[in-house]
Amino acid sequence: MLKQVILIRKDLELSKGKLAAQACHASLKTYRKSKKKNPKETNDWIDQGGKKIILWVKKKKKIEREIPKKIPKTSIKDAGYTELEPGTLTALGIGPWEEEELDKYTGDLETVK
Amino acid sequence: MLKQVILIRKDLELSKGKLAAQACHASLKTYRKSKKKNPKETNDWIDQGGKKIILWVKKKKKIEREIPKKIPKTSIKDAGYTELEPGTLTALGIGPWEEEELDKYTGDLETVK
Fold first, then answer.
1. Residue B113: inside a domain, yes or no?
2. Looking at the predicted complex, does its ipTM rise above 0.90?
């Protein structure tokens, strides 16, 4: 099973809507990168229902994970129009990638409830 | 300015993470439809920063809006693995489309904070 994971900084205390918008930016940006790099796997993921999991990271340092280069990832910086300072790193999108391998790098993280 | 709007059902009282995941599904699905239908506008939207706004609709009936056919939209039904009954309509993605015209159809809705 393929999935995409989205890491969100918990320390920023984003509102519900802001968090959702940052997650959408990360999901779409990483999809577009993945689609170029791994078109077949990306289409397979869509066909499987496009599973997406939202996870907390405690602070900025924790979002900068050691993830193998073969796995597509993109980071999101906020434009700073509303709640945050311009250029604040808010989210990281990873995948789609095989769930089992992805869990090696993000399995320690808490799900956003 | 082009933007995408994502309508979320307030009556379902989704958790923060569930709401973000449904918004991501709606954003990506509507992007993919729009990319096929209006490739130029969709790329322009990405180049402009891919503005996304998350809005509440009070209940299911309110999510079924009269929106002109030319504007791409897709609805999201939940698979029902976690918080919801399978097949529950959770979200509607609309656009990207010109902000001014889009606001005619969704300008009455409250932003998700």
1. no
2. yes
